[in-house]
Design goal:
By secondary structure, this protein is an alpha/beta fold. It is 40% helix and 11% strand. Helix 10 (284-299) links the parallel strand 7 (270-274) and strand 8. The radius of gyration is 22 Å and the shape is globular. The structure holds glutamine (GLN). Glutamine binds at residues 134-137, 159-160, 179-184, 212, 323, 439.
Length: 510
């Protein structure tokens, strides 16, 4: 194994430890990942934009600080590089949300999470690919070509955050940030064998996250291990006066919970199985890994009870009304006036502002984004508002009540992350409803604002990764980290090591 391969296959926590002990510099870590990116990208396409030079500058600045002994306020992941979903704005680095309408836009400011990562001494490797404006479940809706799943490059990595998930799975980055509106961190995590966390709504600032559906959007960590996700969430979390939905609360002790979980003792913990989200419609290999994981939780002392969340079956329908309604409003700002693309009408068409907007939006948005803008505009229109948007909001309340009742009985809920493993390119592109069905297990948590995370639960019969999801009560993100870390440790033993280590990586030097 070369030095590069040995370095990039460490966990982020291990990399940080090597930096602390002086065994490796931040520059060496950045260089190692840039070289993997160089060899992996032709087959993976996880990145839309690389920021190698500025990453090296950030690494050098950090290494200098460390050499000077200025380490007092060093974060637990100081010096470790990270990739950023291109839905999050980065000062001086082109940010497009994988849309033509933002091509060439260089933000003049950083999102709060980016400011925090910089303060934590974490170099930014670049911006990762996604479905346009985070709308999709496969990354095929990117205006810049799809990302490939490192487990099988003929298959999708999930979406919308397929770029961040594939980058972390392929060892192009030890960590990444994603955004999750209906599952875009967790479902790609499941399909690529990585860990993906959607924090409590309001626990991580959305300032500088490009808005898709503001009442559902949440930034969160992508990693290979539960502990790495916890460490990252502690860095990006916390109250932010620039986000009016941000919750003024102490960041929960998630890393401590993960470390506790690694001891594999879950006595006293109550785990709820949601009857409505398993069984029929689940790929047999996915259901089998799910059942085995539940058994492992039981073996570690958890008490497992089956319970019912009767309104979950309406979650998908409610989401696909509420989300497009918010999309239609949020995406009205791309009008060719303020930033990004501007397309003037042809000479024989009146040169009015309205025509310019129409031509710009026609050329700048892809089909899926247009579909949602039209759907949302319809759902919000005068005669249909109560019937569609109003009803969907009522369903949302019923789902929140289902969660409240469930959390009176149990500490955490467990459900599969996705009904299937990674599917082939093109398989669901002609059938939007089939694509939307991917989100059936992830959407309830977004509608209720509860934290949720997906961890790898082994491989299905087709040799592809399966995800297992924990959901915890609002503001108690720490509660899911403990059983997640316990299950991760138990699964590592069962599978002879982490799933992500068994990935075949022809792009890594032997
Ligand atoms: N796949 C879901 C959708 O298409 C989720 C998107 C997201 O979480 N950003 O809306």
């Amino acid at each position: 194994m070369t030095d590069t391969t040995a370095l990039v296959t460490l966990t982020a926590a291990q990399m940080a430890a090597k930096i602390k002990s002086g065994e490796v510099s931040s520059r060496e870590l950045v260089e190692a990942h840039l070289s993997v990116i160089d060899s992996a990208e032709p087959s993976i396409n996880a990145f839309l934009k690389l920021a190698g030079d500025s990453a090296l500058e950030q690494a050098d600045a950090f290494d200098k600080k460390r050499a000077a002994g200025d380490t007092e306020d060093m974060s637990e992941l100081a010096g470790v590089p990270i990739a950023i979903k291109d839905m999050i704005v980065t000062k001086g680095i082109e940010t497009t949300a994988a849309s033509k309408i933002l091509q060439g836009w260089v933000p003049p400011y950083d999102a709060t999470v980016i400011t925090k990562l910089k303060a934590a001494g974490m170099p930014l490797l670049g911006k990762t690919n996604l479905d346009e404006f985070a709308q999709g479940s496969s990354t095929e809706h990117s205006a810049y070509g799809p990302t490939h799943n490192p487990w099988d490059t003929e298959r999708v990595p999930g979406g919308s955050g397929g770029g961040s998930a594939s980058a972390v799975a392929a060892f192009e980055a030890p960590l990444a940030l994603g955004t999750d509106t209906g599952g875009s961190i967790r479902q790609p995590g499941a399909l690529t064998g990585t860990v993906g966390v959607k924090p409590t709504y309001g626990a991580v600032s959305r300032f500088g996250a490009i808005a898709m559906a503001s009442s559902l959007d949440q930034i969160g960590p992508v990693s290979r291990t539960v502990l790495d996700a916890a460490l990252l969430q502690e860095i990006i979390g916390g109250h932010d006066v620039r986000d009016s939905t941000s919750i003024p609360m102490k960041v929960p002790a998630m890393a401590a919970a993960a470390r506790q979980g690694a001891k594999r003792d879950l006595k006293g913990m109550k785990v709820g199985l949601v009857k409505e989200l398993s069984g029929e419609g689940y790929q047999p290999g996915v259901q089998a890994r799910f059942n085995e994981a539940v058994k492992l939780l039981q073996d570690m002392g958890a008490q497992v009870v089956e319970l019912s969340c009767p309104h979950f079956e309406y979650a998908l329908g409610a989401y696909y009304i509420i989300m497009p309604s918010e999309v239609s409003s949020n995406l009205a700002r791309y009008d060719g006036m303020r930033y990004g693309l501007r397309v003037m009408p042809p000479a024989d068409v009146p040169q009015t502002a309205a025509n310019m907007m129409a031509y710009t939006r026609e050329a700048g948005f892809g089909d899926e984004v247009k579909r949602r803008i039209i759907l949302g505009t319809y759902a919000l229109s005068a005669g249909y508002y109560d019937a569609w948007y109003g009803s969907a909001q009522k369903v949302r309340t019923l789902i929140i009540e289902d969660f409240n009742e469930a959390f009176e009985q149990v500490d955490t809920l467990v459900v599969p992350t996705s009904p299937t493993t990674a599917f082939k390119f093109g398989e669901k592109m002609d059938d939007p409803l089939a694509m939307y069905m991917n989100d059936i297990d992830t959407i309830p948590a977004n509608l209720a604002g509860t934290p949720a995370m997906s961890i790898p639960a082994g491989l299905s019969d087709d040799g592809l990764p399966v995800g297992f999801q924990f959901i915890a009560p609002q503001k108690r993100d720490d509660v899911m980290y403990k059983p997640a870390a316990a299950l991760e440790a138990a699964l590592n033993e069962q599978w002879g090591g982490p799933i992500w280590k068994s990935l075949k990586t022809p792009w890594l030097a032997k």
